[in-house]
What we know:
Elements (H helix, E strand, L loop, with lengths): L16 H6 L4 E3 L2 H16 L18 H13 L3 E5 L8 H13 L3 E2 L9 E4 L23 E4 L5 E8 L3 E2 L2 E5 H11 L4 H4 L2 E5 L12 E5 L1 E4 L2 E4 L3 H6 L11 H14 L6 E3 L6 E5 L3 E5 L2 E2 L9 E8 L21
Helix pairs in contact: 2-4, 5-8
Amino acid sequence: MTEMLQQPYTGPSAWTRPQMEADKSWIYTLSPAEVDEIRGAVAAARATGKPLESISRADFPLAGLSDRLAALGEELENGRGFEMWRGLPVEDWSLEERSIAYWGLGQYLGDAVVQNARGELFGHVRDTTAGADPQTNANTRFYHTNRAAPFHVDGADIVGLMCVRTAKAGGAGLVVSSTSIYNALLRDHPDMIPLLYEPLWFDHRGERNAVTGQPYWVTSICGWTNGKLSMMYLRNFIESAQRYEGAPPLTERHRKLLELIDHYAESPELCLSMEFLPGDIQWLNNHMTLHSRTEFLDWEEDERKRWLMRLWLNRRERNRYTDTYGYYGIAPDAK
């Protein structure tokens, strides 16, 4: 029998927007000394001559920052589930230097995960689709458009989003506690809770699962294990998976549940907005938060267009996560 959480979840991950706006300790600004240490680690990693994907934590030495990175990991794992780092000198760095710095920091948090069928370990979040609409084209991804994205999680324990350039207008990051969404559902619609633990099909949207080889994967929206709550929510992936033969049809109750999750995610009580600055990294635990972004108006010049670099990481010790939270990753070279 599936284990279910049937009482409100308490703890730092069950936060609200007013609480986060009153206490902005989730923003961490790097000191000049810490930036210098990162510069030195970039130089050390480059000197190894290794390709980026072979650079390890040992190749990126951070004697001073290592404790702060451990605290970040703890915050993501057992705290609020998100943090914003500020102050990386991305405008002074080449693409290679940015990539090494970002990759090296990530090595202190987990192992990089393939993000797409091309086998890429870095994703680039920018508008490359000239107006394509992911709502009507099931193989288009929101991160390749300028459109407002629905609330969702990404396919790894942790996602990092590093801002290289901002848009002309818009493109704010939105974050919400999935724990608080769960508590709101439990308070207002307790009859919906069992549906959160029922298996659903999720669409890989033109890619294939690394384990099963299927263009979809099957899991529940929520899992509860080892005293920890996880949420896997991608509404458009759930809805577009209905195109596959054999997919269990979504009932009216399922559709109502999806509407309710979106309602709470977008509510002023829970939805936290944050502006990106060049050199920011937004770190998020996908089990404990949902994220989104507002629509943006981009610059006309290519060299000024909005650009975020995305890193997916799996924690090296994953015993907090339910077995039913089964994304399994994307198969490289999938057709």
